[in-house]
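User: I want to check something. If I give you two sequences, will you return the structure for each one separately, not as a complex?

Assistant: Yes, each is folded on its own. Here is the first sequence with its structure:
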Amino acid sequence: MIRRSTFIVLSIAMMAWLWAVPSSSQSISFGVRGGLNIMQMEFDDDIFDNSNRAGFFVGPTVVFSLPAPGFSIDVSGLYDQRYLKVEDQKLKQESVTFPAHMRMGASIPSFGSLFLFLGPQLSFNIGAATFHWEDAEQNAKHFMLQDTKVSVDLGIGASIGNQLEVMINYNIPIGKTADMSWNAYDYQTAKYVMNTAKTTANAWMLSAAYLF
């Protein structure tokens, strides 16, 4: 099994390659991409319930067609805002993300084209990273987001004419999204003890792009 650190290095190397390859592209299209995401948080401690939360993203994008028929690359820089729910707390996550996808598709006469895509996404947290609160029993809770996150996108898209694209993909994080810690009273030892849990946040992402 590939170790997480090795996968991260390979993902970053693939992203760098996807950025470099377009120098040999046949055509370049610039545009704006935006959309919605629905995120599902999963904890490694069953004391927390899974929860779904929605968010949005928007930013510039560029699409490069490659000499090989049916192949292209898209690279974007997106502002991503998501709301997370942990217990009764609504937490806002803000990040800048850089997805880079290799695409393989086929043209459809009088419509456009359909394509599959796969690629890494690198995210940098630009908002609050640590959240603190107390529950009804006055136990202190701490939720800490990762500053940098690598994930993988897998999806399908369609080009309608020469200017409009729609895409849907599943985003899978590599490693944890955040750490949760809290203190709780242990009646066996008659002391407060510190507990920890990790969470990952997969997301469905639906986007549309207008190319100039």
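And separately, the second sequence with its own structure:
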Amino acid sequence: MRPRIPRQQAREPQKQQGIHRSDGDAGLSAELAGAVAGARRRVVRDGDRQIDTAHLLHSLLESDCEVRAVLGEGPRIARLLGYLVQRSIGYGLRWQGSVEDSGGLPVVTAAAGFSPLAAGCMEYAHERAARNGSGPARGTDLLAAIVADPQARAVEVLRRAGIDPGELLTRLESPSSR
């Protein structure tokens, strides 16, 4: 008996959708590399044009326990995840078809598939890790970059969830969190 579903060749969906793995992924901690890969999968699944800071924040929460610890546990994380899930079915629909760019960070063209703001955040995460001498860029380095720009989509989501991005950045910049 023949299967009713035709076989499909194994393909790399990121390349088909115009989202390529970037050389910027080198020098990332395992957790951060996993978060970036998760953001790429989310973009492909949702049919978005580029990885934005909200995609990155969502994936960081799912894959990086250090980021979750900085944000706090319990209802705060649940509320934040709820807003991030809603982004593709609710208020986030207004983001589709637009490019996330606050103009606050220089555009980094080497990070194909990222919004200009997300690409700048990835670059900042690398620089922050190098400055701190902490080895490869970690999720907390990327989170610090994301919350530093008040125009980031992820910052809007954090605010809606009742998390103060300024307070979060202060915690991330304290010597104990590096």
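Because they were folded independently, the notes below concern the second chain alone. The longest helix spans residues 30-46. The chain has a mean pLDDT of 77.
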